Amino acid sequence: MIDFAISPQGDLIFEEFEEPKSFKIDFRITESKGLNIKFHVLDPNVKQEQSGFKVSFATKQKTGLTHKASLVSETDQKLQQIRIALTTERGELPTRQSIGSRLSLARHQDINDSANLRLIEQYVLEAISGILTSPEVMAKPEKGVGNFYCQTVGIFIYEKGILIFKFYI
C-alpha cells in the first residue's frame, strides 16, 4: 500500500526536486490528412500546424524545481498510522468509525491510579490492533517541568520487545 507522508501537525509533506530533461512525444488528431515530422532545436515557440499525423521533437525541455508529495516507507507508514490512531477520537471520522482511540475518556482521571493506567494501555491497544502484529503498551506517569509537572502520561509502544513509538497525553 502506498501512503503519503504527513507532518506531526497533519500536513502533507512535499519534496522539492529538479524535473529532469526528458524526451516527450505528443500526438494530436486533426481533420487534415498528411504526415508532418519536425525537429525543433532550442526553439520553445513552435507554432501549431494542421496535419493529420504530426511528430514533433524538441531537444531542449524546460527544467526547474517542482514539488511532489512525499511517500513513506512501510515502517514510517505504520508509525504514521499509530500517530493518527492516537490523535483521533474514536468515531470522529464519520466514514471511518473504526479509526481512532478512546484516550479522551481518560481525560481528567487520576494518572497515578494503576487501574487508570491499565485502562489507557487498553485504549491504545484497541486503537493500534490492526497496525502492529504483536504490540505491547506501557503507560506511566511522567514528571515534567512547569505547572503541570505531574499531569502527563507517557505511552510507550513496543513491537517484539523494541520501543517503536512514544506518545504523551
Q: What does this protein look like?
A:
It is a single chain. The protein has 169 residues and is of the alpha+beta class. It folds into two domains: 20-63, no CATH class; 75-168, Nuclear Transport Factor 2, Chain: A. It has two helices and seven strands. The protein has helices at 74-87, 114-128; strands at 14-18, 35-40, 53-58, 65-69, 135-142, 152-159, 162-168. The strands form three sheets. Strands 5-6-7 form a three-stranded antiparallel beta sheet, with helices on one face. A hairpin with a 2-residue loop joins strand 6 and strand 7. The longest helix is centred in the last third of the chain and has 15 residues, at 114-128.
Gist?
Helices cover 17% and strands 27% of the residues.
Q: What is the topology?
A:
Blueprint (H helix, E strand, L loop, with lengths): L13 E5 L16 E6 L12 E6 L6 E5 L4 H14 L26 H15 L6 E8 L9 E8 L2 E7 L1
Parallel strand pairs: 2-3
Antiparallel strand pairs: 1-4, 5-6, 6-7
Labels describing this entry:
169 residues, alpha+beta, Nuclear Transport Factor 2, Chain: A, 2 domains, two-stranded antiparallel ribbon, 27% strand, elongated
Q: Tell me about the biggest sheet?
A: 3 strands, antiparallel
The count of helical stretches stands at 2
Number of domains: 2
SSE string, helices as H and strands as E: EEEEHHEEE
CATH hierarchy: architecture of the largest domain: Roll
- Backbone structural class: alpha+beta
CATH C-level category of the largest domain = Alpha Beta
Mean pLDDT: 76
Which oligomeric form is depicted? Answer: single chain
Rg (C-alpha, Å): 27 Å
- The proportion of residues forming helix, as a percent range, comes to 10-25%
Alpha-carbon distance between the two ends: 30 Å
Identify the strand order in the major beta sheet.
Answer: 5-6-7
Number of strands: 7
In the predicted model, the low-confidence regions spanning at least 5 consecutive residues are: none
CATH topology category name of the largest domain? Nuclear Transport Factor 2, Chain: A
| Shape by Cα distribution | elongated
Question: What percentage of the residues does DSSP assign to strands (E)?
Answer: 25-35%
